[in-house]
Amino acid sequence: MRPGVEDSVFVDFETITTADLTLKKMTTHEYVTDPRFDVLCVAIARGREDVRVYYKDAPEAAGLARARSVLVEASKEGCRFVAHNVGFDGLICKLLWGVSFGSYFDTTGYARFLGIQAGLANTAAFFGKKKLEAPPFNEASLSDRKALQRLARYCATDTALARFIFNQAVADEMYPDAEFAVNGMTAQGNLRGLSVDIERAAALAAELAELRATALDEFASTFQFDTTDLTKVKKVLRFLDDKWGIKLSSLDKRDPGRADAVVHVPEAQRFLALRQRIHTLHKATQNVAAYARIPRRVYNFLHYHGAHTGRFTAGGRDAGKLNIHTLFKTKNSAKITELGRERTLIVPEEGSSFRAADLSNIEARIVAFLAGEHALLDQFAAPGSDVYIWFAQPIFPDVTIVKGGENDHLRQLGKEAVLGLGFGMGFNTFLDRVRTAVPGVSIDLVQKMFNAYQGSFPKIRAIRYALHRQFAAVAEQRVAFPEVPCPMYFTSEPASAGPSVVVTLPTGRSLFYRSIVGEDELGPYGPKRAYWYAPAATCHPSVRARARGAGQKRFADGQVRSRITPQVLVENVVQAVARDLMVHQALQLEQEGLRVAFHAHDEIVVACNKCSCLEATNRLHKDGCAWSAAGLAMKRIMSAVPPTLPGLSGLPVACEVKEDVRVSYAG
């Protein structure tokens, strides 16, 4: 059921800001709990009522105490809290005023869903509205009549804009009902926060620092190289050339030339491996030391619709630099098992345990589903089938492949192919990926596996180019393509966001490719048409987006755009579908009374009652054990397509439930 304006309360706080007391330098929690922090005013609107502004030191009817009473009353009546950045306004309500709500909606999330830069000024411009210029946020604004009027008008306008944007979301048929629930669940989790074991963090930081010191000593005693120059790439490259005659253009591990150049020089391999170990331990030590400074709980750690595909992002200054998406696992590429203990720093509440499950090879399953590769889908669906052996065995008919046993390296090659080649990865990139997973593998063997994948699943290759041709036709001819699996159409509304291509997913959600630009480029086979879109379109000349990575560039109109290739488009679609599957399952878990603590990529972690079974270490649990029941519910829900996603009917879904009793994220 879609929410309504009538059962919502719209809120915007204006607070003290100085050169040192600012969200540009502090997390929201640090800012709100700083002794110098103070609320200047707050604008509140109940339902469709007029916006009212309440001030510090104002008479009782217009004072902040009255504003708190209004919010307490709204909370008791079950109103939804709506703001443009609930992580700020909601945290003030919770931590300073002790007021929490049963449900929330963050209008910045809806802005990101629309494919635009999510600041209030930009979101307002998208809808043809205007945010006012910011006044000074200081005590002087309360004592001067004109300054106070300006502050009140600014605050009231922001609240009115939040209500307007919420109205747009409610009326937007392309914004699915489930997204309101997901938006609110994310806001609720961010305000609840995650517990961090800061004592354990401090101990781990000290241990990692000691490991790094040991690695530095080993390096210094082995190589005649100044360890203070380890981060200076040019000096490292010169040393490789002078010492072993190895000429490299970069130290990028993804460069296949690096592996080829050092494969027969064990000393050079050790030099680079030790250097990488030192670098990794330095970075990990810094991260864990930062976690030790978190005041036992981290807020605003998850960002709803943070990526263009709708996938969640995490981390940033507001989360105390803790990124649950990038925490090391015990099995990590650096092969430093101690790094896996970074996950032990996230702990459940007193009396609770974590229970975790993740979707198995979900992206490979979705690629096969969208392409209609039924043989591959059947293997994913078959109980007990090892899809990697099934794929690899016909390529090597004269050998026996056994998981964890005879010729397991061939199974690993099959796994890398099935999981990695669905998006159109090139051979050199695939080679680099395989060499990381299966060291010492020959190029010929990798080429054989690469070719076999292309020949075995032609429909997967075909769908990449079919989707891109369809996208190009929509962008150029401005027509609609209703064909499944991803209908597309063109829109020029609103004009502020530029021409857009809308891709409809089989989950019912849409991806918006805003401000499309087509360019003719000269390639190795002649001219070809390239397409670019703005992942966070700017709708007002005063707003500038930032280039965030490779493949992006700023155009003359100020927009930062990313290039759309067949590989990028199919990856976008697949990741978006995987995201929708995971969040619909998370909603099912919540409906069954399992509180989702957080999720990372395709893994969901719930908090349940602590297991007290005496034989839990042997995986034996009493009847009625809440921890055991949570695992059964996760297995049932995450091994099937939710009924709320009929467009994914026929997709074989499987999950892996972690069976160790969790006293932290890691175990």
Map the helices and strands.
Elements: E1 8-15, H1 28-33, E2 39-46, E3 52-55, H2 64-76, E4 80-83, H3 86-96, E5 103-106, H4 107-113, H5 120-126, H6 140-143, H7 145-171, H8 177-192, E6 194-196, H9 198-222, H10 233-244, H11 256-262, H12 266-291, E7 297-298, E8 302-303, E9 313-314, E10 346-347, E11 352-359, H13 362-371, H14 374-381, H15 387-392, H16 408-420, H17 427-437, H18 443-456, H19 458-477, E12 488-491, E13 500-504, E14 510-523, E15 526-534, E16 552-554, E17 560-564, H20 566-591, E18 595-600, E19 603-609, H21 626-637, E20 655-657
Parallel strand pairs: 1-4, 4-5
Antiparallel strand pairs: 1-2, 2-3, 6-7, 6-10, 8-9, 11-19, 11-20, 12-13, 13-14, 14-15, 15-17, 16-17, 18-19
Helix pairs in contact: 9-12, 13-19, 13-20, 16-17, 16-18, 17-18, 19-20
Keywords: DNA replication
InterPro entries: DNA-dir_DNA_pol_A_palm_dom, DNA/RNA_pol_sf, DNA_polymerase_A, RNaseH-like_sf
Enzyme class: transferase
Overview of the molecule:
42% of the residues lie in helices and 15% in strands. By secondary structure, it is an alpha+beta fold. Strands 12-13-14-15-17-16 form a six-stranded antiparallel sheet. Strands 3-2-1-4-5 form a five-stranded mixed sheet, sandwiched between helices. A hairpin with a 2-residue loop joins strand 14 (510-523) and strand 15 (526-534). Helix 16 (408-420) crosses helix 18 and helix 19 (458-477) crosses helix 20. The longest helix is centred in the first third of the chain and has 27 residues, at 145-171. The relative contact order is 0.10.
